[in-house]
Design brief:
Helix content: 10-25%
Strand order of the largest sheet: 1-4-3-2
Distance between the termini: 34 Å
Number of domains: 2
CATH topology of the largest domain: 2,3-Dihydroxybiphenyl 1,2-Dioxygenase, domain 1
CATH class of the largest domain: Alpha Beta
CATH architecture of the largest domain: Roll
Number of strands: 8
Mean pLDDT: 93
Radius of gyration: 15 Å
């Protein structure tokens, strides 16, 4: 078994794709679904997967997130540098300053994509 992709729905493709590209994803392809929708597939460069599938349904500009969605998590080389780049180049701010869940744990923080989905950034540098 292999995890192929995670999918969620978006309200404005250009805005969402720009957000994920700012996080370091690359757009692989887009797949129209008749006259109903378009799926956009993104992936972390240099990996074989899994992919992130963003679905834009024509005529729908927003969705209710509900209480079941948690977040996706991304490990970054240096959280401080990543946050500075996101803030300076893209105007993306964290929900709150980086913190540790437990004393010996990794430094983490959350950002939200343009549709309100939470993205956890985990510092791989061990600071």
């Amino acid at each position: 078994m292999e995890l192929i992709h995670t999918c969620y729905r978006i309200g404005e493709p250009a805005r969402s794709i720009a957000f994920y590209e700012a996080l370091g994803f690359e757009k692989l392809r887009e797949l129209p679904i008749r006259d109903e929708a378009v799926n956009y597939f993104l992936r972390v460069p240099g990996t074989d997967g899994p992919e992130l599938e963003l679905t834009f349904n024509f005529g729908v500009s927003s969705y209710e997130l509900g209480s079941g969605y948690g977040h996706i998590a991304l490990e970054v080389d240096d959280l401080e540098v990543t946050l500075a780049k996101l803030r300076g180049e893209h105007g993306i701010e964290p929900e709150r300053p980086p913190y540790r869940v437990r004393e010996s744990g990794a430094l983490i923080c959350f950002v939200r994509d343009p549709d309100g989905y939470r993205i956890e950034l985990i510092d791989a540098s061990g600071r």
